[in-house]
Amino acid sequence: MVRYILRRLLQVIPVFLGTTLLVYYMVFALPGDPIAALFGDRQPPQSVIDTLRSQYHLDQPFWVQYGIFLQNLFTFNLGNDFTGQPIAATLARVFPVTAMLAVEALIIQAVFGVAFGVFAGLRRGSWFDSTVLVASLVVIAVPTFVLGFVFQLVFGVQLGWAKPTVGANADWGNLLLPAVVLGLVSFAYVLRLTRASVSESMNADYVRTATAKGLSRPRVVLAHILRNSLIPVVTYLGANLGGLMGGAIVTEGIFNVPGVGNKLYQAVLRSEGPTIVSIVSVLVLVFVVANLLVDLLYAWLDPRIRYDQ
Amino acid sequence: MTSNNSHFVAPIEETPLLATDTLKTDQAPLSLWADAWRKLRRRPLFIISALLILALTIVALFPDLLSTVPPNEGCELANSEGGPSAGHPFGYTFQGCDIYSRVIHGTRASLSVGVLAVLCVLIVGVTFGALAGFYGGWLDIVLARLGDIFFALPLILGALVITQLPVFRQNKSVWTVVFVIAVLAWPQMARITRGAVIEVRNADFVTAARALGVSPFGALVRHVLPNALAPVIVLATLELGVFIVAEATLSFLGIGLPEGIMSWGHDIAAAQSSIRTKPEILLYPAAALSITVLSFIMLGDAVRDALDPKSRQR
Fold first, then answer.
1. CB of A31 within 8 Å of any CB in chain B?
2. pLDDT tens digits for range A23-39
3. Pick from B164, B249, B275: which is nearest to A250 by CB?
4. Whole-angstrom Cα distance, residue B140 to residue A131?
5. Which of these, A113, A235, B54, B261, has the minimum number of CB atoms within 10 Å of its CB?
């Protein structure tokens, strides 16, 4: 197991460096002179431009800039954005909001997805199973931004169950509606995955043995069927965390959540290179670490994985 | 005892097994594909989705058959948010354009981006995945790490950055959206292909072909790939739906197709301002988009059930 962990840890490094380099290169090539954009219509004196350029290392060659960026990233000294705000402070403000949103969405999709999936899988071919299957296809087919508007209109405006937009004070209650929207598509995938997995392990020999030795039905379902069916589901949920953080761009925009996605979208529209690269790097790091944890969890749950190596 | 009445079991001519055990030797055995096709034809899910896709394709190719009003002409601000009238069954947008015509003309952009992106992903992903899986070694390692780098960028996140590159900002077209999607989505196709190729690579028929003097590349193209295609086709059908959603999302965010091209994503974004007063304006293009994606996802689901041997044992 230790060798497996070390091997996976070593694989993370080139991925992280490669992805940040790719993003850094693309942002470096972004159109528009950010210093000129800072001043709008006014023409600043050349000396001011030069000072700002050297302050943001814009006068250095690309590789030097990337080196400085990496060094700063690992010391969490991310510098200031072009309005003079420290980027680290901005990240500290927006990340908890998105993390809250993503965790809430993750809980919703895990709890409801597994529950519906188990019931459908146990009664394969029943009317409940068929209804749930068709409904999940429909949920997968409706894009998140359409779902967002419909939920905002129905639950926020017409029924008044939730606030249509979140605004500055984001808490668990306010974020519930956007979290449902964000988690709904993955909920459908979790449901289908659990269903397939449960109905497959229902015919397994160990389940027949458990039933034959006289265990009660709930015990067979919970301890034998469910535990073995959850392996692929856990994998999907973990790998999906990064997707949730990225997919938050649309959801946060619709519900006006002051989170990472919103900030990133604004930064892209304003070509704020340093902010974009910092946010994307942290998101990539979250995604890569989440995938690493899932792989380790998988190897722990299913010993065949690590013995294969 | 004579040999005539020494049967302890019924003679085979009398058992019901005869009908089951008889092999029709004059008939060619069904291949995986013929077998899958026979299963597909009987599934209502497949029939419905295939008919829907056929209809959508016709609408995309010949939008003028269904709508005589050009989507961007005849927009009268006097008609802003107007209700349905004769010849304009869905009413008017905020800008006073005919919604029905816009919904019909938006089909082409969605389908062409979806199909072209899937083709690009197939070409790149299958090539890389097949080479990595078949030859292994350093090629496999390099391609796997390269794929990981793109895989670590979630689709919308990566697209947000790539579409801001000067090249793409200046000449936005269907192809830029296709390129962005393909660049970010090929690793998954490559992984699936690689896995399938590794499974087939050591099969006896491949060894036999090699022993008969077929070159490694010839064996890969003629013997390994055709037998590794099932998971690839399933993923491609499912991804078609995903890519259509991606195009609409990017257009909705204002970083997808240029304004001149009709896209449901644009119309949904424009309908935001009317959502409290006239939600129908948003619902028509949203419904069209959802139905299109649904038909491809249903098709993918049906094809997977037909091709996946696991789901056959009921």
1. yes
2. 887 776 655 566 666 66
3. B249
4. 43
5. B54
**Spatial CB neighbours of B164, under 8 Å, sequence gap ≥ 6:** A26, A27, A30, A31, A268, A271, B255
Chain B CB contacts of A144 under 8 Å are 249
Distance from CA of B231 to the nearest CA of A (A): 17
Please indicate if any CB of chain B lies within 8 Å of the CB of A288. Answer: yes
Taking 3-state DSSP, the helix, strand and coil percentages for chain B, each rounded to the nearest 5, stand at 70, 0, 25
Is A299 at the interface with chain B, CB within 8 A? no
Least confident of A159-163, B184-188, B305-309: B305-309
Q: How much is the pTM? A: 0.81
To probe the interface with B, which of A10, A98, A140, A185 has the most B CB atoms within 10 Å?
A140
Residue B3 has pLDDT above 60, yes or no: no
Residue A146, class by beta-carbon neighbours within 10 Å (0-12 exposed, 13-18 middle, 19+ buried)? buried
Q: How many helices (H) and strands (E) does chain A have?
A: 14, 0
Q: How far apart are CA B71 and CA B264, in angstroms?
A: 12
Do residue A264 and residue B156 have CB atoms under 8 angstroms apart? Answer: no
pLDDT digits (tens, 9 = 90+) for A164-214: 777 777 777 788 888 888 888 888 888 988 888 888 888 888 888 888 888
Interface predicted TM-score (ipTM) of this complex, two decimals:
0.78
